[in-house]
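Table 4 source record.
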Amino acid sequence: MVRHLLASFFLSFFAALVLICLYVFLPQFLASRFGGQIRQILPVAAPVASPTPTPTPTPSPTPALTPATLIIPKLNIQAAVEPVGVTETENMDVPKNDADAAWYMYGSKPSEEGNAVIAGHYDTPTGKPALFYNLNKLVEGDEVIVISSNAVKNTFVVTGKDRIPYDEFPSDYVFTTKEGKNVNLITCGGIWDQKTRNYQDRYVVYTTLVEDNTEVIN
C-alpha cells in the first residue's frame, strides 16, 4: 500500500515537472526555430483608432453695431447718432442736437438680438420740423439703414407702427420684450400740452433686421 502511494506521488510529481518545463522552455524553443513563421500565422490585433470628434461649425454672428449714422431713404434722412442714457425722471434722454438721432446705449445694439431704440426730435424749440417730424409717414416695407462706428452697414425693414398715448407707453415691449433683431424708432406727436410741456402721444416705428444683408463699407 505504501509503495503504491509513493509510486503515485512520484509519477504525479514527474508529470508536473514536465508540464512546467514545457510551459517555460517550449515557447523560447519555438521562437528561436520558427519565430518568423509563427508571427505570420498568429493574428495581430489591429490598432483601434481613436474617434476624431467632428468639429461643430461656429455660426458667423451678424456684426453688432455701435450706431454712428442713421439713414432713412424715404424721408431723406441721414443723421449722426448720439449714445444717450436716462434723465433724472428715468426716461430715455434725447439728442442734444435737433439734427441728430439718439440711441439708448443701455439697450441692445442694432443687429443684436433684442430691441435697439433710436429716438429723434419731432420739432425744434421754435416749432420748426426736426429730424423725425415725418416719421409717421413710414409704412411696412420701407428701409432703415444703420451704419456703425466701424463702418458696418445693416439694413432694417419697417414691420409696423403705433401711435400711443404718452401715459400708456409700453416701455417693456418697445425696449425689451419684442422678439427679433429690431430697431424701434420713437418720436413725439399729437397735441402739445402746455401744462406738462409735453406732447400727448408717441409715434413708434418698428423695424426688423434684413438677414444676410450686412456689408462693410470701404
